[in-house]
Amino acid sequence: MTEELQALEKTHTWDLVDLPHGKSAIGCKWVYKIKTKSDGSIERYKARLVAKGYAQEYGIDYEETFAPVARITSVRSLLAIAAVHQWPLFQMDVKNAFLNGDLTEEVYMQAPPGYSDYPDKVCLLRRALYGLKQAPRAWFAKFSSIVHQFGFSSSSHDTTLFIRRSDKGMILLLLYVDDMIITGDDHSGISDFKLFLHQQFEMKDLGHLSYFLGLEVSSDSTGYYLSQAKYASDLLSRAGLTDTKVVSTPLEMNARLTPLDGTPLSDATLYLLHILRYIKGTMFHGLHFSAHSTLDLCAYSDADWAGDPTDRRSTTGFCFFLGDSLISWRSKKQHIVSRSSTEAEYRALADTTSELLALRWLLEDMGVTHSSPTVIHCDNRSAIQIAHNDVFHERTKHIEIDCHLVRHHLSAGILHLLPVSSSDQTADIFTKTFPPGRFRDLVSKLKMASVKPP
């Protein structure tokens, strides 16, 4: 608590004033937390003063609240690029980050518990104290303005990605609230930038990237590995399944859980336990980002047909590889019933195309430009024919216009549709269940690798 109060005073978080007539002061409280390392050991004990932001009123003491955070796809893309270029990955953390954000609204807060030197005064907040609705936005605005002074610019496709290009090379920075990843080939520039950050904020230099947002990052001569062994271990501990037996697939073949159809289960938690047993057996599996790979982008797009027995909607599945590295995937039920398997596959192609555009723009900001069309593998030739032929007939006239963006970007040379056999359709794993043999084959196609435990 003493350390936290010192930080609050150092950043001049508030002024002690009399509460003006007609104004109200929100409350605050202390929150205590034990911070752990990636191996589960205790890193430190932490106390934080938090404002009771739920008492704020819109238009009076706050307005805009949105603040962006790094997309997980951006994290994986950054790792894939760094692996190929053999760039080092550095991690830094800003201490008491929100306290650096400037408040533009007039916010009054009661004096914190244990801070009783002036019992009749209230705190007029100057800084974005944790708990305030606008605190994340104020901090991000402050950080953005500071790094722009060093020559960085923000990506328009992920505003938490900052890029600095110079004659010496490029620096990429990805921010998630107060945690950041820094990489690039401008090594002297990275050192200068770290020093610059230390001059602007109270920083913690965590060295090479090893643990970020619950993701464990390790490396060897073949590239980087991304896993979640600690998260899986914590999940199993909470469920009391640390010594449970393991299974080879996350769901039994042809098993479907529905709220209304079929015979009621005597114990529905058995299917949850089945998933946890699969996690137990794959705790030390992770994604491999190869150093010996190209940076060519390709995708696999697939869909089942009327797979949900309750509403007969289909499931879209797709995955994107940057060279040999898996950077994006999705498994999501379609919002409308498809009248045929071809229609379901075409709708999946539309979703895949949308993700393709976003990834191409993001990768271009990261210095990876694709001048040739991106290949999308599809195992439905009829869906490919619909995309190639601007023909409306009874089977396709009802498909929404937005689905035909596939056709537009195909003719623009942004993508190329390539037929693939069902046995080689990697995205199949995102649409249905499989027996153990086929499931293992598909997992291997996703470039999953065994990561050695620490």
Task: Describe what you observe in this structure.
Residues 12-252 form the Reverse transcriptase Ty1/copia-type domain. This is Reverse transcriptase Ty1/copia-type domain-containing protein. Pfam families: RVT_2. The protein has 454 residues and is α+β, with helices and mostly antiparallel strands. It folds into 2 domains: 2-212, no CATH class; 223-450, Ribonuclease H-like superfamily/Ribonuclease H (Nucleotidyltransferase, domain 5, 2-Layer Sandwich), CATH 3.30.420.10. It has helices at residues 2-10, 72-85, 135-149, 187-200, 229-239, 269-281, 341-365, 381-388, 405-411, 436-445; strands at 14-17, 28-36, 42-51, 90-94, 108-110, 122-125, 153-154, 161-166, 169-176, 179-184, 203-208, 211-212, 215-220, 223-227, 285-290, 297-303, 315-322, 325-333, 374-378, 415-419, 448-450. Strands 7-8-9-10-4-11 form a 6-stranded antiparallel sheet, with helices on both faces. A 5-stranded antiparallel sheet has the order 12-13-14-15-21. It has a 5-stranded mixed sheet with strand order 18-17-16-19-20. α7 (341-365) crosses α8. It is globular and about 75 Å long. The model has no long low-confidence stretch (mean pLDDT 91).
